[in-house]
Each structure stands twice: as structure tokens, then as C-alpha cells.
Amino acid sequence: MPRIDLGAITVEYTDEGAGTPLVLVHGHPFDRSMWQPQVDRFAGDGLRVIVPDLRGYGGTTVVPGTTPLDTFAGDLRELLDRLGVDRIVLGGLSMGGQIVMEFHRLYPERLRGLILADTTAAAETPAGRRARRDMAERLLREGLGPYADEVLPKMVAPHNIERLPEVAAHVLDMMRATSPEGAAAALRGRAERPDYVGMLAGVRVPALVVVGSEDEYTPIADAELMHRAIPGSTLAVVDGAAHLPNLERRAEFDTALARFLDSLPADG
């Protein structure tokens, strides 16, 4: 797999196809392999799909401590600079969607389109901040194994765990393989995330908001709020999926993404 040294970290990433750059950002506690079905589907036919492992996840350097969302966004910008990539269509799921919003806050001129999947734009609540910090300490004590077993039925809807055992196994493997130090650093950073809701009204590029109909972490109401806030955005609710519709209902997710990509105006 390609790796690139950014100085502070070394990033492992996937880069396939040619044409309009589509960059996909994974969620927590996963890695870039969660987007492999979309790499397989969209790389080529005028699209260059770039999917990095985030700082602390997958094959990218683990940096203990606290990783704020602006650090993740800065890593992404530096990776794109090193690859000679300017304007992109940027998508992310869950934590990845929050990184997408932070990237928009910092570097809006780099964007041609946004994809916000199963994420939320609101700042963390006081109770949520405490819970994330407590979870960071738990992961450092226990590792990811017990947590992964506990949350799998929320990441993947129980009926999909039964119907799609290979998807459930992939999700479980990604979670169990994640570095406790990397996951804890991200949780501490997300505890301090800003409120993006007010910013969304200023989005000036096409946007697709996607959510699984059975998502407990970021329910439909969160997606509807972002859809209402972003001028001209498209909302797609994927029936029968929980927090990972791109894996649980791949065909439906890919259809919504393909329609959005096909609708984008030519760059420049």
C-alpha cells in the first residue's frame, strides 16, 4: 500500500483511478478499508478515489494524547498537497463527516462537493464530553476488544449482522485492530469539537447528506438538520441500515453517491 511521510506522521492510503478526486474519510474506530466497496465501485470512469488511514488508525502513525479535528483536517490537506491534488469532492462518515466539516471550515476553496454520512454537526454536550473522555480511559485500560463486541449491534443493525456476516466480521475486525492510543486521542479531540451547524448555511458547493434509517448514533433528525441548513443539499435515507450504510446497504448507498457525483458541475 502507498505510504507518504508528512514529517510528523507517515500516512498509509489508497489511491486508485484517474480524474476528479473523490476523497473518503473513515469513521471511528475504523480504518480506510471501510470504504473499499466504494473504491471498487467508483475508481475509474473519471474518478480518482483517495482514501487515507487517519492519524492513529490503520497503517498511519499513532500519536498518543489528543488529536483535535483540525489536526485531522490539516493532515488531509498536507496529504493532498503532497499528491498534487487541488480541488476535491470530500466525503466522510461519522467522525469522518466531522473532519469533512472541519476541512470545509479551514479550506473551503479546496472543495467541489461534500458528502456527510451518518454524522452530526452539533457541538458535543457537557455529558458527551465526559463520556468521550471516560471512554478514552477505558480503551487504554481494556483495549478495543470489549468495546467492539459491545457496540457492533449499533454499528451494524442486528438483522444485518445475521444477514451479512462477512460485513459484521469486517467491522468487528477493524474495531479490534484499532490502536487504543490512537482511538483515545481522537475521542479526546472530538470531545472539544466546535458547533458546525451555523457554518453549514455558508456551504457554497453541492452537498449530499446520507443516513441509515436505523442509525442510533446519528439518527435521521441529525441528517435532516444538516440537510435543512445546507443550501440546495440532497438527503438520502438508506432503509435497513444502521451506522454504516455504505457496508450494510452498499447498492443503495452507491446509487445515492453515484447520482450525486453525476450531478456535480464541471470544475472551473
TrEMBL record:
Keyword tags: Hydrolase
Keyword Hydrolase: yes
Keyword DNA-binding in record: no
Every AB hydrolase-1 domain range: 21-248
Cleavable signal peptide: none
Molecular function terms from GO: hydrolase activity
Protein name as it appears in the record: Alpha/beta fold hydrolase
Organism annotation: Amycolatopsis suaedae
